[in-house]
From TrEMBL:
PANTHER family noted in UniProt: REDUCTASE, PUTATIVE (AFU_ORTHOLOGUE AFUA_3G10540)-RELATED
InterPro entries according to UniProt: Ankyrin_rpt, Ankyrin_rpt-contain_sf, MGDG_epimerase
Nucleus in keyword set: no
Domain of life: Eukaryota
Residue ranges of coiled coil: none
Name by which UniProt lists this protein: 4950_t:CDS:1
Species for this entry: Ambispora leptoticha
Length: 558
């Protein structure tokens, strides 16, 4: 990236004075960029001497404190803003071609050896056309982030399989960390930063009269501190970094070392071992001079004692540092330092598009058409938990329509009961709200079966998925299924839920009310299920429900 920045033409308005040029590189185009150095044609010992020479040259020429930070895949030489971080990749190459062919994005397949600038044909074509072509055979774990990063530098992204008419609009509402492939790239196109994504979700909540996120105030209050770390405001790190080192005017070498030391102490201090079962150390990185980081900077890492600890140590050694420095020698043409993750085109676009068969399954589920549901699931192999344009699963749509047979068929194909809609309601909440007794019994029976299967296999994740639906809270209103049944006057549903053990005395604590009612006093109120019976449209039914609640332990003092 740093070499590409030098090869690209400087905008005319920034080429007149040195101050303008400096402003462009430090405040406009390359705010948080670092410099990557690759070593080729040397063995390990010679590579160490070269790294030591680079460190000494940098330390002699930078007027501030300089230190080294050794992560699993690179050694970073850091100082103080505006001096860039310098990353030396811990991989030995035989030639410049091995280095350049390992890059995933076309335009950055360029390098400089001190005398000549090198570029691959695909890099030359990308620079000429100002366009990067998606190539899944070269995909790295941060491929989409890197493509988006270069769009800010004037490079468009060519996706041959892109179909705007089939884009799933719910990708903009999902957790960004869980998005992959084209879906992540489309979100980055519209909402490039975490702040943009958070503001979009909050404004969408406001338009829908939904409550604010419970952490909205805390997130907004920390916006200034986030802005000081230039590396947190845009895109994630390269594949060579397993530790994010802050960069900005407020961060010098001394402060960065203090942050690293604090993190290391939290993870490995013996004072914290009382509350932990593990004894193995986890060091995200070592810091010191170049000679110091060549060696083991801990010296007290315990050895694994059991086969489980040995297996855990092998897994954690892929991320954390331990012992003396070592270089990666296998397959130097790989972009990813860990494992390489090639995907097919269908896998890469799966989350981004709503396929016709997926849309058809949602439509026939909403209509309760058993034959077409079975055809979609058995013959066309459509995911039973696929979602429509509003983020609803086939099971939720079948429950909304009251189609008991369709619900039974979807449950037989392991439809996920705990899947939530945009407001946090599950199929159980919907069935309780609409008063579908048969469907509710089916859902509870299937939930019990799933729980027993999970207990036999001792799967913690599955047990979490099969958590009692009686205590499951909808995100927006913080209601359980019983409370929805009370509010909508479903007496028989309330009896069934109480029979299954629903809590009639649960305090309903709102983390935030709808925006139009969200003031200091209303947001502090606590309600109880008995008080909801007063809001039932049919007052006679509300009286019967209140009587039922009082008979089962509710108190009038609530």
């Amino acid at each position: 990236g740093s070499v590409l920045a030098c090869l690209l033409p400087l905008p005319e308005e920034y080429s007149t004075f040195s101050r303008k040029t400096r402003e462009y590189y430090h405040e406009k185009a390359y705010v948080s960029s670092d410099i990557d150095l690759f070593i080729y044609g040397l063995d390990e010992e010679a590579a160490k001497q070269k790294m030591l020479h680079i460190y000494n040259v940098v330390a002699d020429n930078v007027p501030w404190e300089v230190t080294c930070v050794r992560a699993k895949s690179c050694v970073s030489i850091i100082s103080q803003y505006p001096y860039r971080h310098i990353q030396i990749v811990l991989r030995l190459y035989q030639s410049p071609s091995e280095i350049l062919t390992g890059f995933d994005v076309d335009c950055c397949s360029v390098g400089f050896d001190g005398e000549n600038a090198w570029a691959l044909p695909r890099a030359h074509q990308a620079i000429t056309k100002q366009c990067n072509v998606v190539d899944l055979t070269r995909r790295s774990p941060s491929y989409e982030m890197r493509l988006a990063k270069y769009t800010e530098r004037g490079f468009e992204i060519k996706v041959p399989s892109l179909d705007h008419s089939r884009i799933d609009p719910t990708i903009y509402d999902r957790s960004f960390e869980k998005l992959h492939g084209l879906a992540r790239l489309l979100v980055l196109e519209r909402l490039a930063t975490p702040d943009f994504r958070f503001r979009y979700l909050e404004e969408k909540r406001e338009c829908s009269l939904r409550p604010k996120h419970s952490k909205a105030g805390i997130y907004a209050s920390r916006s200034w501190s986030r802005s000081q770390n230039l590396r947190r405001s845009k895109f994630e790190n390269s594949d060579y970094e397993t530790v994010q080192l802050p960069y900005g005017e407020r961060f010098n070498a001394k402060r960065i070392k203090k942050l690293i030391y604090k993190k290391d102490m939290v993870m490995n201090s013996h004072w914290n071992q009382k509350t932990r079962k593990r004894i193995l150390h986890r060091h995200p990185c070592f810091f010191g001079t170049m000679e110091q980081v060549f060696n083991d900077c801990c010296g007290t890492c315990p050895d694994p004692r059991t086969p489980e600890e040995k297996e855990l140590q092998e897994e954690e050694d892929k991320i954390f540092v331990r012992g003396e420095i070592s270089f990666i020698k296998d397959d130097p043409g790989r972009q990813a330092i860990g494992s390489f993750h090639p995907l097919t085109e269908d896998d890469w676009t799966e989350e981004a598009f709503i396929r016709p068969v997926r849309e058809d399954l949602c439509v026939v589920s909403a209509k309760g058409n058993l034959e077409k549901i079975k055809k979609a699931l058995v013959e066309e192999k459509v995911d039973v938990n696929a979602r429509d344009y509003l983020g609803r699963t086939p099971l939720q749509l079948a429950v909304m329509g009251g189609f008991t047979d369709a619900v039974a068929l979807l449950l037989a194909h392991d439809a996920r009961i705990t899947a939530r809609m945009s407001d946090g309601r599950t199929a159980v909440h919907v069935a309780a709200m609409l008063g579908f007794m048969d469907i509710l019994e089916l859902l509870f029976k299937k939930s019990d079966i799933n729980k027993k299967k999970a207990e036999k296999r001792d799967l913690k994740e599955t047990l979490a998925e099969t958590e009692s639906q009686l205590v499951s809270l909808a995100w927006d209103h913080q209601f359980t299924p019983l409370e929805y049944a009370i509010l909508f006057g479903r007496l028989e549903i309330a009896k069934l839920l109480i029979k299954y053990g629903a809590n009639v005395k649960r305090p309903i604590k709102f983390s935030g009310l709808p925006i139009v009612y969200n003031n200091y006093y209303s947001s502090k109120k606590v309600y109880f299920p008995l008080s909801l019976s007063m809001l039932t449209r049919d007052q006679g039914m509300g009286l019967k429900i209140a009587t039922l609640l009082l008979e089962n332990g509710a108190m009038t003092s609530q």
